[in-house]
Please model this.
Amino acid sequence: MKKTYIFSKLIAAILFILIFNCSFTYASDDIDSNAVIAKPSQSEITNLDRAYLHKNASDYEGKWIRIAGSLSPYYTNDDNESLILDGASSIKKICCYLMSDQDVSALSGGSYVTVVGRVKGKTIGQLFIYNCYIESTGETARAFDEKMQNAYASNSNSSSSSKSLSDKLFGTPDLDKSSAIQLTAQQAYDELENNQVSCKQKYDGKLVAITGTIDNIGTNVIGQEYITFEINDKYTLSGVQCFFKNDKVDYVSSLKKGQTITLYSIADIGSMTFKLGNSQP
Model:
């Protein structure tokens, strides 16, 4: 019986290592994951609980987030370019790929850190965040982690609001609209179609103000409201897409096809798609 128990633990450990090897390979495929890039403004960062982020990662892909936690004993890979935190559980981890100018020499397994970075996505249950930087360590990071956990637990147990958990926890953040890059939906699409790499470098992760004529208003397969803009007076599967959080449902329902509007949000440049998540009028 004891031998069977030990053997099962050994198999679990091997699987754990294989998962992380596969996960690191996945994240390392992005050559920009450790690039030193401009840090975001505070209005671009969403504070999140680790477990909540892990379960709702798709809502934050390409977005700047702030999380905190204690480092896993397997806290860094061989070249000290990543940190590992617990995610939705002690098995489901969050791998934070650091900007190459970050110093981790004072950290070890169990150290508390606050990390800011951009969500890449999940694979095999593991979540990846890239272009990360360490914002605080020690008791400051521990206090922030506890604050986020308490907010998550409190709102998870509350059913007093019809809003989603994300809206109840974090709402729609205020944006400094005066700093937004102004452009039309047609201009955004033309730049994307002409050179996606250049468009991504110019707008991705930055606050933009998009003005255009509404082409379509709807709800996607996960229940998120969106609009698209007219592009060259023709229908396109790609283009400029704007998504909204639950606290903007009344606004979206008031819109009409053919109406010209301006929306503000952080740009997320994908495969021939200029996307605005959490759009605001």
